[in-house]
Amino acid sequence: MKNLVSSGVLGRWQTWAGFGVAAVLLFAVAPAVLSDFRLSLLGKFLCFAIVAVGIGLAWGRGGMLVLGQGVFFGLGGYMMGMHLKIADAQLRGEAVPDFMQIAGVRELPGYWEPFASPAFTLTAILVAPTAIAVALGYGVFKRRVKGAYFAILSQALAAAMAILLVGQTSLGGSNGLNRFRTFFGFTLNDPVNRRMLYFIAAATLLLVVAVARQLMYSRYGELLVAVRDSEERVRFLGYDPANIKVAAYAVAALFASIAGALFTPIVGFIAPSQVGILPSIAFLIGVAIGGRTTLLGPVLGAIGVAWAQTVFSERFPSEWTYAQGLLFIVVVGFFPAGLAGLAGVRSLLNRRRRSDSPASVAEPEPQGTTEEKVGVPT
Questions:
Q1: What is the protein's major site of localization (predicted)?
Q2: Residue 117, φ and ψ in degrees, nearest 5
């Protein structure tokens, strides 16, 4: 019992120490060593990491291969972009955003009007994608759709969403929404405000990781892993696997929506190219490479892949796509637990070496009868 208590205390201290190190790196080291451009680029990568945390929860822990997270990422991004465009138009004293004026639109569409309110926009970013994920999850998981069928369905949803957005001239068509000037009253061209956006993204990532950790190491997290490993056994024990899956899928959608809402002002645009199949697969690649079953693996994988894409695509624009595909094939084929799994294999080998060493061999128990060992009087 004493060993269990001490190990629990040690685990909590390690968790707090890990969050402390991450906070120092994100809030002190990165702003000190990176230029404003590179810091804004890191803020973009942190948005991808927020999406990856949700994928790690749904795919790594729940076994749901989510290939349509670009849908929820795009929903959050477009809702934030709609509010920013309305705010910019109001500052200029105009009734509609600039791209609508070019298209000859003189009146704001009805579904745009509620996004003039900051409170409504933030609420919609949190509620709408989550509600859509819950409705879609119940429709799919209650029918026991899983595996490759669920992956294909989610990917088809992403493709349909991208095609729909391209045809919507009231949402900018294939160009999307761009050229934002303000963010809730703050000028986006100001370097101080750009840093503020980075700090918001960094704080959100830490909060999302904390929420994911709480879910993973709770009773719900144990049920989620049980559903992944043996769904029928969980159903036999009296739990509904569909409800457990829906919760994880909704949380992943919520994280993706928040990431999209932060991505829009940080990068300065949101378009159908961030919603379709390719970005959804790119999110998945980072999670797979980092290690989908771990807590920090998806975060580090998403940031690392996004950073590598930026660096190498600048020098080798045509070769990077092939290198990214090859890296994904190698990791999935030879390291299914991701790069984070290499550390687990190394620690397992170290424990085996220690257990096989002569010093670790336990002394033989004293000879005696069974009654004497358990304390039964003779």
A1: membrane
A2: -90, 125
Q: Which residues of the chain have pLDDT under 50?
A: 4-5, 7, 345-349, 356-378
| Token pair recorded at residue 93 | 């004293």
Report the 10 Å Cβ neighbour count for 107. 10
| Number of CB atoms found within 10 A of residue 357's CB | 9
Backbone angles phi, psi at 177, to 5 degrees: -110, 130
Give the pLDDT of residue 360: 43
pLDDT digits (tens, 9 = 90+) for 239-294: 899 999 999 999 999 999 999 999 999 999 999 988 888 888 888 888 888 888 88
Tokens matching residue 229? 């490993």
> Rounded CA gap, 243 and 235, in Å?
11
**CA–CA dist 350, 142 (Å, integer):** 44
- Looking at this protein, which amino acid is placed at residue 185? G
User: Is-contact 32 118, C-beta < 8 A?
Assistant: no
How does DSSP classify residue 177? E
Residues 43-60 as b/e (b if ≥16 CB within 10 A, e otherwise) read: bbbbbbbbbbbbbbbbbb
**DSSP single-letter state for residue 36:** H
Reduced to 3 states (helix: H, G, I; strand: E, B; else coil), residue 92 is coil
Asked if residue 54 lies in contact with residue 251, where contact means CB atoms within 8 angstroms, the answer is: yes
Q: pTM for the full model?
A: 0.86
The whole-angstrom separation of Cα 146 and Cα 137 is: 11
Alpha helices in the chain (DSSP H): 2-24, 30-33, 36-55, 69-91, 98-102, 118-141, 148-166, 191-216, 219-229, 231-236, 241-267, 277-290, 297-315, 320-334, 340-356, 370-374
